[in-house]
Amino acid sequence: MIHFRRTVQIAPGRQVDAMARAHEWVSIVREATGVTMCVSVVTTGTLGRLCWSADYESMGAREAAGDKANAHLASQALWAKQYQELRDGTLPFVPGITHDEFWRYS
């Protein structure tokens, strides 16, 4: 069993927008793959971070789910929106500060 976590830095003053966007991604992933993801925000330490997490049977299952989610039309539309926000400087996340972790249950 694999536990996946993606952590991003929230743009200053954009926590509400970032949480809403995170939940948009969660809905798309659930619709496209059936995988239930969780959204969390940090409460201690370095503030302003958000995390998506989910459990998968294997790394192959994680990769297949990612491919399936990225092929979904709603995902493609949301990516296009995010790229436009990146160009406009209105993205709710700090670009380039994404950290992925894969944990294996023992």
What does this structure look like?
- By secondary structure, this protein is of the alpha+beta class.
- The chain contains three helices and four strands; from the N terminus they run βαββααβ.
- It has helices at 15-33, 59-71, 73-88, and strands spanning 2-10, 38-41, 49-56, 93-104.
- It has a four-stranded antiparallel beta sheet.
- α1 (15-33) crosses α2 (59-71).
- It is globular and about 40 Å long.
- The model has no long low-confidence stretch (mean pLDDT 95).
Distance between the termini: 8 Å
**Count the strands?**
4
Q: Per DSSP, what share of the residues sits in E-state strands of 2 or more residues?
A: 25-35%
Mean pLDDT, rounded to whole units?
95
Silhouette: globular
Structure annotation, total helices: 3
Task: Note the topology.
Elements: E1 2-10, H1 15-33, E2 38-41, E3 49-56, H2 59-71, H3 73-88, E4 93-104
Antiparallel strand pairs: 1-3, 1-4, 2-3
What would a concise description of this structure say?
The protein has 106 residues and is of the alpha+beta class. It has helices at residues 15-33, 59-71, 73-88, and strands at 2-10, 38-41, 49-56, 93-104. 45% of the residues lie in helices and 31% in strands.
Notable characteristics:
31% strand, 106 residues, 45% helix, globular
